[in-house]
């Protein structure tokens, strides 16, 4: 019933249905039901005209029209209606639709009008009021809390006003008799004290009062978040049970030697705890997929390195990928020192690695001689093939997409047969069968076999169907695999979908089809065959079979032959817990929540540009103490040229105040060649220069413990997380460090909040929470591609508490009933299936 197309609802019709589809994505009754109001207007109060105040709020008045009048204005005319009640008169004004209004609104008849009032020239007026006959108003189901639905300009212009939407909604409730299937289990309703689905839907659309509205909202938010969490947790469980991991049985010599002899400092308790968590993953039979969160300077690198040692101890290779060349280089140099002590071979691979060196690296990786590789996304290139990659670490995750994460998977050992390998196998088989079954094989070579009109039509239908699926663009149509042109081919999964004829012309043709499938399967492809009749009949069973396969394919390891490496993602972008639960719900999360001992909290101050001389004096004092200083300028894409000029102007003025030979200055910005950048960086790292003038290229990960001052120019132009990242470049040694935020006097309210937050706290999670509140979740790093934020009613920021409960309950339920097969979870299972079927959930999960 709820899947009925919206066109069938009384009062909708084809035109409105079209608009609803295009403008609001409402295709079915169900979609309409799920169009929740943005807000509600309290329409319990009626105003008299003499009670109106010039405050431009929404008011509701009962009265009648006494006359219409057209008034010329600058462009066109406006229609003015005189509206009167027993206390006075006011004007109703229309700028459009005069004809319709004059012929449809009745004079001297009681109306309820609703809208915002203007006060001008001693008179009240209401432009484009919502109007309803008093008689209808009294008879309507509409409650005193009037829902305001999401709308678009187009809908408004085409006459689908809020009132029309309300009426359509009423019609829906009438047709469905306001009975809706319960989607949560009785246990959940009981334990969470939730109202029923039917009551919730009724009260979200027609709230009887505030209290019931609140209950309805709570129930629906809970439900929404609950099902997202259920999906994520299931995904994670399926992952763990289905995806085999490389078993790291031992903690061996490398790890132990390093731990006992070369550990440069004592690990913090947090580092130890995280290492244990990682060790547990690696020892289990499942693939590790772990996110390691830790504030800047919390010491993630050494945890990553020691994890790499575990891989080596089990005869696997390990790699570490960083987002920038500078950072990769720095990691490499840090790790190189440790590797030398342990006699481990390690190399650096970036975009600027020379060809000869590159070749050597490739060879070393394939032969297994090279044990560790550090690099940028150059690591992802197809030419980089490992002998047996056991662990991939990704530093600063937000710079990499999910796609890149999955690309690393394919670099696991027993690498999936490459395309060329497959093709040569295929060729061999084709040759073999051409000899034994010449007729059938000949038939396959003639295009006539597949090029019938019927076949083409069936392919069109299926193509449309597949295009709507998750991972739609994975399928290539008419893909040529040697002799065969297959109907649909998914490279990544080595999956083929073939449309077969129900009735074959003759035995040769039948044999040809069978051979083709047989050959493809024996080469290692998965082949799904769907009879063309099933497609034309839109046969449910065959589509649901396909659906099952597609779901399986989506969650399955690309090929049983490869075992993906363990993955550890390290990020210094503190993601608020609530968000992490949703965005990284499919990853396990470890947190280093403790800084190494002896660190002094960085002192942060805000200074205006006019205090620059004081700031320079301070820099001079710090340099005299032997410290180093960063001065950072903003670089925002759109205004790159201007920013560059700011940077150069700044550099010149600094150079004037800090002249050689007493002072040396490094400069690093995005327009420099990598080699020059590197050279300048290195001078600073070695302490040859005291001041580093830079754009945000140094934002991520750079480690110079002797640097104690971070000056951020035009700090008001940076986002909170960026400011926090930048500040994290200092405070890495034992010395007291400082961060000075320079701004002009003109500051927006948000900038002020950002600056205040920075001077108030050093806690990344605290800062992330403020950031989330300021910017909303859409902008927080790492969430853009996740799509978790298309929530219908819940708010990821405000409803953190509900999210937590929902996640907890989802976990509980899956713990005691992992397959949701117990009778009392029937409603949950049904809803879950329904959601997967209608793909709602794919809107949430990338
Ligand atoms: P991040 O988590 O930001 O990547 P790093 O791994 O770069 O942090 O560590 C920051 C600095 O702290 C480095 O100089 C590192 O050597 C040092 N460090 C890490 N762990 C400890 C520890 N347990 N005790 C003392 N210093 C540590
Ligand atoms: Mg780091």
TrEMBL record:
One of its GO terms (molecular function) is helicase activity. CDD domains: RecG_wedge_OBF. Coiled coil: none annotated. Residues 281-592 form the Helicase ATP-binding domain. Pfam families: DEAD, DUF559, Helicase_C, RecG_dom3_C, RecG_wedge. SMART domains: DEXDc (SM00487), HELICc (SM00490). It comes from the Bacteria. InterPro entries: DEAD/DEAH_box_helicase_dom, DUF559, Helicase_ATP-bd, Helicase_C-like, NA-bd_OB-fold, P-loop_NTPase, RecG/Mfd, RecG_dom3_C. Keywords: ATP-binding, DNA damage, DNA repair, DNA-binding, Helicase, Hydrolase, Nucleotide-binding. Residues 611-778 form the Helicase C-terminal domain. PANTHER family: ATP-DEPENDENT DNA HELICASE HOMOLOG RECG, CHLOROPLASTIC (PTHR47964:SF1). This is Probable DNA 3'-5' helicase RecG.
